[in-house]
């Protein structure tokens, strides 16, 4: 969501256009939420005051079906807006933006442009959870810290989702690590059986048993969310809530381990860098019996090449 918002704000700013609060669309057709279901609208509007005009609702006279749809590459440049988007905007007057990801591109660019500061503001200064979702995340983080008494209240968040690991894109590539590989990696860099681990996997899957053998204090959303919140935030139609909860818990954990490479990892890394939580350890198959955790620090941090570093220098 951070990337999508940043692109929309950058385009609206360049064009001098009004930004209508976007729907939040899930991966399945028809799976969408209103912006205010998840984020604090007042904070969003206030943070963009003087930068971009924001409308909470699409004007009634505009039909979504009649809007010209423009594909916008993530991290859109001024040249692209001028050449590909502005002419359509000038002729049509209203646009619907559809961001796509030619690649996961969160590295900072060397050349400075007028849109850099707007991009930084949009990514790191506009989105805040609405109170109920905020409360759910805070209570889950608090629960994890309570469960981590033996490790001074510290816990690891691991982005590991079984349904993604099973997809063909993960087979044979080392951009994804299995539960067993994650268990071996964490052991070899010094984490012991008292380590508390939060998994982004929503519900327990038998394939995770190999990880639980090494690390018995391992938890999913299902096991630490308050019972009265599960019906709303953990049902078949709550995938966007689940992603947001994962994002914020992974951003607040003491250590973050992305078992899956990609956009979620890049966005969490940016949020962690912005808040000074730079313990991001990227898994690897380690020959031998032990290694230093410092050797596996994310290159976003070790090389300071994430765009967040150009926002928070």
Automatic annotation (TrEMBL):
What GO molecular functions are on record for this protein? glycosyltransferase activity
InterPro entries in alphabetical order: FucosylTrfase_pln (IPR024709), GDP-Fuc_O-FucTrfase (IPR019378)
Which Pfam families did the record assign? O-FucT
Keywords tagged on the record: Carbohydrate metabolism, Fucose metabolism, Glycosyltransferase, Transferase
User: GO terms for biological process?
Assistant: fucose metabolic process
Q: Which family does it belong to?
A: Belongs to the glycosyltransferase GT106 family.
Q: What is this protein called?
A: O-fucosyltransferase family protein
């Amino acid at each position: 969501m951070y990337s999508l918002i940043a692109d929309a704000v950058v385009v609206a700013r360049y064009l001098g256009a009004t930004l209508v609060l976007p729907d939040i669309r899930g991966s399945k057709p028809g799976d969408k939420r209103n912006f205010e279901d998840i984020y604090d609208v007042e904070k969003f509007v206030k943070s963009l005051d003087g930068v971009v005009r924001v409308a909470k609702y699409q004007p009634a006279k505009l039909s979504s079906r009649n809007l010209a749809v423009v594909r916008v590459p993530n991290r859109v440049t001024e040249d692209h807006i001028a050449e590909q988007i502005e002419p359509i905007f000038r002729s049509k007057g209203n646009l619907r933006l559809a961001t796509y990801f030619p690649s996961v591109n969160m590295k900072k660019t060397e050349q400075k442009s007028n849109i850099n500061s707007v991009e930084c503001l949009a990514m790191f200064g506009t989105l805040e959870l609405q109170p109920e979702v905020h409360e759910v995340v805070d209570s889950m983080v608090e629960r994890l810290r309570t469960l981590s008494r033996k490790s001074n209240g510290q816990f690891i968040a691991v982005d590991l989702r079984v349904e993604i690991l099973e997809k063909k894109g993960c087979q044979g590539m080392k951009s994804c690590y299995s539960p067993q590989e994650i268990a071996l990696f964490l052991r070899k860099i010094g984490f012991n059986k008292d380590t508390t681990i939060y998994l982004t996997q929503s519900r327990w899957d038998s394939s995770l048993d190999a990880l639980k053998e090494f690390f018995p204090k391992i938890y999913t959303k299902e096991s630490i969310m308050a019972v009265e919140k599960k019906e709303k935030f953990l049902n078949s139609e709550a995938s966007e809530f689940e992603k947001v909860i994962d994002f914020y818990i992974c951003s607040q954990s003491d250590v973050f381990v992305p078992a899956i490479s990609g956009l979620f990892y890049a966005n969490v890394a940016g949020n962690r860098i912005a808040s000074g939580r730079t313990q991001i350890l990227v898994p690897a198959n380690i020959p031998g019996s032990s290694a230093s955790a410092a050797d596996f620090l994310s290159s976003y941090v070790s090389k300071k090449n994430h765009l967040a570093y150009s926002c928070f220098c």
